[in-house]
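Review form for a predicted model. The reviewer records the input and the model, then writes brief findings.
Reviewer: anonymous (R2)
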Amino acid sequence: MYDMVVSPTGALDHDFVEMMTPHHRGAIDMAQNYLRFGSNEQLKRIAQEIIVDQQQEIAAMRLAIGEQLPPSVPAPTQVGKY
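Model under review:
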């Protein structure tokens, strides 16, 4: 939550993305933890959807302000499965 505290730069679009990105990453982190330790299959499906949706929203926001996207990496749940 502390990462969402951003000193305003006056560039509202940039500030919005800088505040929303940690918010979305927090949702991703919580969903990944649930996938690792949770047991309810319905909630696991929801957690997977949250991860995909939040990653897409972060990418869309970054592109909207003209930033390059970082290189793709495997999801933590995929590492070591290949």
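Findings: The chain has a mean pLDDT of 87.
Further findings: The domain at 2-64 is CATH 1.20.1260.10 (Ferritin).
Recommendation: see findings above.
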